[in-house]
Amino acid sequence: MAPKTWLGVHLAPSISRSNFATYLFAVFISSGYAGALSVLQPGLLHVMGIAEDTQAMLTGYLGALQELVFILLLGAAGALSDRIGRRPVYVFGLALTGLGFILYPHASSIPQLVAFRLLVAVGSAAMIGMMVTVVADYAAEDSRGRANGLQAMAATLGAFVPPILASLPRVFSGRGFDELAAQQWTFAVGGALGLIAAVVALAGLAPKVLQTAATVRESLTSTLIGGLKAARDPQTALSYGAAFISRGDLAVTGAFISLWLVQYGTRELGLSASEAMFQLAVPRVLATVAGALLGAVIMGKIADRISRVSAVALASGLAAVIYSAVFLISDPTADWVIGLLFVMGIAEISAFVSSQALVGQQAPEAYRGATIGFFGVAGAFGILLGTSGGGVLFAKISPSAPFVLFGALNFAVFIWSLWLRNYLSNQTAAKGQVPESAIATSQ
Fold it and tell me: Quick check: keyword Transmembrane in the entry (predicted)?
């Protein structure tokens, strides 16, 4: 019997087209949440009357707090989903994140703001963990690359949600709401998206992931340890390294391209901050997003036609060249920079897609959630380095320094993946086994 196919993806035997469509909708909302606070929070802090110097410090603290929660909980969320199923964990994550958003602008003090941010962080850890894990369950092995490409497209489209939300305070203010009420209604709309997505996910995701007898018998701790031990497989270890740099790539691009352009526009061109954002940053960010949409499709197909290790090598090699090339930029408003950013979008999403396809291929079925949870932890460390370390490099050395750092890290992963590809090829030749792309983790 031919496998069910949807949008070119061969689905796993127990997965329906509606399951996969529901998942992509959940990805769209999950990705929208990923950047929403960074866009909405500055206006809220201003309305709350927090001093400007405190705003910067508080923003950094809250961001670091969320990444720390991710590091602590992503593995546990994955391990829990191995036991009770992906759907309840995903629904919980979407609902708690939505509730956190609704409560966030009602904080009357910094401690309350921290408490509500913790709610968002815990919900996001479950939500983001399942966003990466579910695609590995839903796609057949020969379509894993294309499935991750579709997921990346949905996630990229979700990046348009924060700017739309950011326009709402002005809309509500124009209808007579005071500034605080306008912020509260904006966050309420953002929170409603998560609650709606939770209901849709509850109705449309597959009821329960298939469990092995061993998974049912083992404790949550044993499942968590099993996921951690999966890193002994060299291809899984490579996927963790690729997760680190691919999430860092995204963080550096998101955090510093607009900042660089706004600073350059206000300092060198005499523009206001809003003019610099609209005239300089928006077109170049859109060029990066357009590249990401194209790259998601291209790498999704490539990852199904060559070995997943080779796909990681291709993506990291391209990213190494492009991110290092940022060193050559003296004027970020030059026309050629738009072309570079377009290719950067292709490179960063290719690293994202290829690393997810590799970990989905290698994750043992019994510990898939836990294994991909630790994959997410590696990505969280990459984001921390990209935002915190990148910020220091941006301020102390040059705006191009964070990009050059990740160019070097991408090159390291490129060399690692080439070495592993040769190692696996030699093993295959020596043992007369199956091709590299089919070598699975043995636990």
Answer: yes
Tokens of 252: 């550096």
Cβ atoms of residues 368 and 137 within 8 Å = yes
Tokens of 67: 């990444």
> DSSP states of 23-52 as a string?
HHHHHHHHHHHHHHHHHHHHHHHHHTT--H
Cα 119 from Cα 37, distance rounded (Å): 13
Q: Return the pLDDT at 429.
A: 78
CA atoms within 13 Å, Cβ hemisphere of 282: 9
For residue 238, give every residue at least 6 positions away whose Cβ sits within 8 Å of its Cβ, in sequence order, or none: 309, 312, 358, 413, 416, 417, 420
Distance, in Å, from the CA atom of 89 to the CA atom of 251, rounded to the nearest integer, reads 25
Say if residue 88's pLDDT is above 70.
Answer: yes
- Residue 435: inside a domain: no
pLDDT of residue 202: 96
Residues 111, 27 share a domain: yes
Mean pLDDT across the stretch 258-269?
A: 83
pTM beyond cutoff 0.85? no
Same domain (yes/no): 283, 379: yes
Do the domain assignments include residue 191? Answer: yes
Same domain, 30 and 137: yes
Burial group, residue 53, by CB count within 10 angstroms (0-12, 13-18, 19+): exposed
How many independent structural domains does the chain possess? Answer: 2
For the chain, give the percent of residues with pLDDT over 90. Answer: 33
Q: Give residue 346's domain range.
A: 214-426
The CA distance from 116 to 17, in Å, is 36
pLDDT band at 216 (very low <50, low <70, confident <90, very high): very low
CATH number at residue 102: 1.20.1250.20
Where would I find the H helices in 175-281? 179-204, 213-217, 220-229, 234-268, 273-276
